[in-house]
Amino acid sequence: MNSETQYQRLRVEVANWMHTHLSGEFACLKYRGGPGDEEAYPALRKQWERELAAGGWTGLGWPADQGGRALTVAEQVIFHEEYARAGGPGRMGHIGEGLLGPTLIACGTDDQRRRFLPGILNGTQFWCQGYSEPGAGSDLANIRTRAVRDDAGNWRVYGQKVWTSLAHDSDWIFVVARTDPESRGNRGLSFLLMPLDQPGIEIRPIKQLNGGAEFNEVFFDGALAAAEDLVGAPGDGWRIAMTLLGFERGMSTLGQQMQFIRELEWVIDAAREAGVAHDAVIRQRIARAWAGLRVMRYNALRMLAGADDAAGGAAGGALGREALIYKYYWSNWHRELGQLAMDVLGPDANLLAADDAKRSRLQGVFLFSRADTIYAGTNEIQLNIMAERGLGMPKEPRGTL
């Protein structure tokens, strides 16, 4: 069987599985649970994770000896595209499966992999990410949360994390904390795994304008991280954190782009309904958005192919320089799409209409996309990264605390 035939069979298999299983009690999950909508049906989306696991659709790129399917990049691309095309909901298990799991495979101990990977794979254990702080968002190295070793060799954590997505629906959190009190910047940090249901951890929701609270503040007051739940060595946290962020710009980018395609289709439909589809400026902006999506796709395939080559054919290799532009590009593209949606709707864009699902969806795209160029590194930080790491330019002067 040639590869094209094999890929087509996989595409049909995924599409058929999604059609069969994303129905009945799961039908309400179609196109729900993505960015800005992560509070939708959390319990049912956790059940959906177990449905995916039972169907063999988790851990697709993980090595077979770690419980994964060891699919190639091309095969994973097919899954993510068909998943998104079918309206697959936002993944409650994304942080565990897409970020922490691959990091433990790359950097964890055999004991950590044995204890944590099965729960991630079967959809029974959910994780959140403890990186950002009030003074350490885009400047991740400016971390003040600290961890102190106790007499038993465990770690006691003190401090605060913020913008922690779905912490209230998670079981565990991975935390970057400062374990060397004399250190500065990205030195002296450690990467800790912590259960959330324990004394010394308080989760406070951050209420948003729409009344939701998918983000949280997490406070640590002597909370416990067991000695065996340190990933890597003390002081090795920055390397582990950067390894994890490399996986963040991996395979799920293709699913994100399928969501963008849907949103562009909504904009085009709205333009037709509003009678502005023949407006020359609107048509030009829609065409630019369409072309931008194609650029985004080809760059994503290029960076994923580079990672595949670096790993000797197994997905999960180090991403190359082309990955440095990805976040900056998609976040600005998406923000412009949100503005285009409002311009297409015209005056109606300013009016709330709970009974108008199309208008509400486009208003949601506009409102949430305003944050795209801020979270996970502001535009300014992304440009510095491209200049310094990608082009080898002199580093921008940093002030001292």
Automatic annotation (TrEMBL):
<dbReference type="GO" id="GO:0005886">
    <property type="term" value="C:plasma membrane"/>
</dbReference>
<dbReference type="InterPro" id="IPR009075">
    <property type="entry name" value="AcylCo_DH/oxidase_C"/>
</dbReference>
<protein>
    <submittedName>
        <fullName>Acyl-CoA dehydrogenase</fullName>
    </submittedName>
</protein>
<dbReference type="InterPro" id="IPR013786">
    <property type="entry name" value="AcylCoA_DH/ox_N"/>
</dbReference>
<dbReference type="InterPro" id="IPR037069">
    <property type="entry name" value="AcylCoA_DH/ox_N_sf"/>
</dbReference>
<feature type="domain" description="Acyl-CoA dehydrogenase/oxidase N-terminal">
    <location>
        <begin position="40"/>
        <end position="123"/>
    </location>
</feature>
<feature type="domain" description="Acyl-CoA dehydrogenase/oxidase C-terminal">
    <location>
        <begin position="235"/>
        <end position="390"/>
    </location>
</feature>
<dbReference type="Pfam" id="PF02771">
    <property type="entry name" value="Acyl-CoA_dh_N"/>
</dbReference>
<dbReference type="InterPro" id="IPR006091">
    <property type="entry name" value="Acyl-CoA_Oxase/DH_mid-dom"/>
</dbReference>
<keyword id="KW-0560">Oxidoreductase</keyword>
<dbReference type="Pfam" id="PF00441">
    <property type="entry name" value="Acyl-CoA_dh_1"/>
</dbReference>
<dbReference type="InterPro" id="IPR046373">
    <property type="entry name" value="Acyl-CoA_Oxase/DH_mid-dom_sf"/>
</dbReference>
<keyword id="KW-0285">Flavoprotein</keyword>
<dbReference type="Pfam" id="PF02770">
    <property type="entry name" value="Acyl-CoA_dh_M"/>
</dbReference>
<comment type="similarity">
    <text>Belongs to the acyl-CoA dehydrogenase family.</text>
</comment>
<dbReference type="InterPro" id="IPR009100">
    <property type="entry name" value="AcylCoA_DH/oxidase_NM_dom_sf"/>
</dbReference>
<dbReference type="InterPro" id="IPR036250">
    <property type="entry name" value="AcylCo_DH-like_C"/>
</dbReference>
<feature type="domain" description="Acyl-CoA oxidase/dehydrogenase middle">
    <location>
        <begin position="128"/>
        <end position="221"/>
    </location>
</feature>
<dbReference type="InterPro" id="IPR052161">
    <property type="entry name" value="Mycobact_Acyl-CoA_DH"/>
</dbReference>
<keyword id="KW-0274">FAD</keyword>
<dbReference type="GO" id="GO:0050660">
    <property type="term" value="F:flavin adenine dinucleotide binding"/>
</dbReference>
<dbReference type="GO" id="GO:0016627">
    <property type="term" value="F:oxidoreductase activity, acting on the CH-CH group of donors"/>
</dbReference>
